[in-house]
Amino acid sequence: MIGRFRCLVLDCPDAHELAYFYRQLVGGEVEGPDPRWAVGDGSVVLRGEAGPVLAFQSVADHRPPVWGAPEQQFLLDVLVDDLSAAHEAVLALGAAPLDGGGGDPARRVYADPAGHPFRLVRP
Description:
This protein has helices at 15-26, 83-93, and strands spanning 7-12, 29-31, 43-47, 53-58, 76-79, 96-97, 107-111, 117-121. By secondary structure, it is an alpha/beta fold. It has 2 domains: 7-58, Signal recognition particle alu RNA binding heterodimer, srp9/1 (2-Layer Sandwich); 76-121, 2,3-Dihydroxybiphenyl 1,2-Dioxygenase, domain 1. Strand 3 and strand 4 form a beta hairpin. The longest helix is centred in the N-terminal third of the chain and has 12 residues, at 15-26. The chain is globular and about 40 Å long.
């Protein structure tokens, strides 16, 4: 092993807005800039009881990734017990479906409000 996972940093137009979206999605507490995560001014972190720390940094010229494009950089998987209920909840938070309703009954792909892809997955 070379190292240990520290955090995942997402660029976005509004760090606070995106942090609160993910807080509603996976829980945790949104905190202000923290020098331990070194993401700079205008950033916030989402720290939960389990799982990775998510850090969000505001970037004025943020360009969201394009789902399915070769340059896609990552995809967050979020486990949910009820895919239908989770689908409605993330839409209410501002997520946008990316898989056209999906053909797989165990998973659905969405874009968060800043355009980053994430997937709801049943266990």
